[in-house]
Amino acid sequence: MITPRSSAVSPSTRPVRKAVVPAAGLGTRFLPATKATPKEMLPVVDKPAIQYVVEEAAAAGLDDVLMVTGRHKRAIEDHFDHAFELEQALAAKGDTVRLDAVRDPARLAAIHHVRQRDPLGLGHAVLCARHHVGQEPFAVLLGDDLIDPRETLLSRMLDVRQRHAGSVVALMEVDPAQIHLYGCAAVRPIGEEGVVGVTGLVEKPSPGDAPSAYAVIGRYVLDPDVFGVLEGTRPGRGGEIQLTDALQELAADGTVHGVVFDGLRYDTGDKADYLRTVVRLACARPDLGPDFAAWLKEFVAGLEGACKSPERRTAA
Ligand code: UTP
Known about the structure:
The chain has 316 residues and is α/β, with parallel strands linked by helices. Helices cover 37% and strands 23% of the residues. Uridine 5'-triphosphate (UTP) is lined by residues 22-29, 40, 68, 116, 119-122, 124-125, 142-144, 269.
């Protein structure tokens, strides 16, 4: 008898194909703008923040994207769908540049949606993806967290997952006085440039309790084992089901690695960071950058002048 050779790839060595983008948070830091609009839809120059996130996933080769949405989900769904009337109007005018811009979001990947009924926390949002993801490793990209399009963080994380299996988090060294705003990782060197072993994780520690200055930022590559852990994860910090708490359990088993990132990252859910994001990305745009940067220099010089001689402001 001939034994059939299985072509199935074991779950632990499957390449990552799917991305999950949680976008169901309340966005309270950005009220009132986020009262009726998801914060992930706030424009960064001329695209909503979440489009940069999906572009990043697509650029790293992930062709299946699941959005976890909540209230006001329509705007996100509509953005990644076809807009027939608009497309027809632009086509009739022969405006191919804008027509492409309107069509691009729906062409980035196969986009799916699942609803998180109540914003019970990031861990709960990830658990909502269980049915869609199944037994495959997957990436999580927070919908309001932008990595500059010139960076290659996600590809580096996918490479670490491929070589080490388990789960991978992205770590950024922050001012120790700011670590209470993030999940924080305890790490050990593994003899690899820019990669560490994660031995523990704690959500938003007070500075005295933080095991390091490594903050967990909004990119993850997760083993499907995380779903089983999340099922049993009780509400933690802020009464929310925290992804950090589930990853802490996996880290205790020695299956979590961290990729250290020192590039450009923006939290567009924070007002000041949002403004910095718009300015930086506008300056980098070939169509807008030169004029905008020239105006910005003049504007800043004017601010400096006004600071030096405040009396001029009242005279003007
Ligand atoms: P944040 O903590 O930044 O989102 O979550 P938030 O709760 O909306 O923010 P504020 O503090 O009230 O302004 C990070 C990401 O996780 C998603 C958010 O939409 C954001 O993209 N998230 C958070 C969910 O999808 N569900 C949740 O229950 C919580």
